Amino acid sequence: MTEPTPEQIEKLATAFERFTRRFKVAEAAAVMQNSLNPLDIQALLFIDEYPKCNLGDVARHLQVALTTMSSSADRLVRRGMIERQRPEANRRSVALTITNEGQQVVAGYIDGYRASCKAMLRALDPVDQTEFLRLTQQIAKYEY
User: Fold this and answer.
1) Are the beta carbons of 97 and 83 closer than 8 angstroms?
2) What's the pTM?
3) Rounded distance, CA 12 to CA 9, Å?
4) Which DSSP helix (H) or strand (E) runs through 84?
5) Is residue 68 predicted with pLDDT exceeding 70?
6) Within 10 A of 10 (CB to CB), how many other CB atoms are there?
7) Dist CA 97 CA 82 (whole Å)
């Protein structure tokens, strides 16, 4: 592999900054619509993907302190978006599950995210779309 030039790095950094801004707009729409903060949205996404996870699992994934995650979970429980349940196998543990209302919020967020992806792909012709997807998937698999 050859080393990228400073100009290539700068172009990629600018492109990713624009991508990130578009996705933050989609996240902000979900946040505003549901009066949630970005941490709560990310917690909902994780809990939806990993039903019966515990607070520590979510905190580790989001790289936040357990106390921060506990506050987020409290907010989501109060809003009726997740539930805390004690598994029969281990009554000291608490499993988190998403409610129907929480699933609706996740679906809305994902719809907004996908709309941003669609808009970006529309800017490319079909051959470039295929190549762009191939390259981004290759980058996504790369271990840093």
Assistant:
1) yes
2) 0.76
3) 5
4) strand 82-85
5) yes
6) 11
7) 5
